[in-house]
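Sequence only, no structure available. Ideas?
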Amino acid sequence: MTVPAPPFDRLDPHELAQALGLVEEIEQYLAGLPAPAPALPPAPAPGPYGSVRQPWNHGEPLPRRSPLDRLTRRPARPVEVTVAGHLRLTSRYLAEAGWTQGALWDARGRVCLLGAQTAVLAHGYGTAYTVRRARAQVMEVLHATGRPVPSPDVWNDRPGRRQAEVHALLERARARAHFLGI
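Reply:
I predicted one. C-alpha cells follow.
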C-alpha cells in the first residue's frame, strides 16, 4: 500500500521553514561567512577588435637581448615572423598608431603603410627581407585586383583613400601569404 504525498500546495512555505528551524540555521550560516571582497576596478573599455584592448604585438614574443648582445652592446636579434605574420602586425600597428598619407609618420604618431611596416621592423619583428617579401605580396594583391600602381605607397597616398581600405588590402595580402605558406 502506497502512502499519498503530503499536500504541499496547502502548506505555507514560511511556516514550514520556521517549524523545521531552517530560517535560524540559514541565518547562522550567513553570519559565519567572511566579509565580501572589495569591488574590482572597472574593466577596460572595449576596443575596435575585441572586448579588451590589446597591444599591437599581443601574442608575439618580445625581442630579448642575449648575454652576448649585452656584452657587445648590440640590439637584440629580431623575432622571426612569417610574411603573413608581418602583414598582420603591420595592420595591428596601423590600427593602434593611426593612419596618415603623404609621410612615413606625422607629429601625432600616425603612420602610412610603409611607416607601419618600418615600425614593426624597428620594434624587432622580422627582417628587411621579410618586409620586402610582404611588400611584394601587397603588390601582387594590388595588381590581381586591377589596381596597377608602381608601389603600395602611391596607392596609400591617393586622395580619397581610407584607413579601412588599407586594412582590407593588408588582410588580403596576409591571407595570400598564409595560403602560400610564407
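Residues 33 and 39 are 17 Å apart (CA to CA).
Hope that gets you unstuck.
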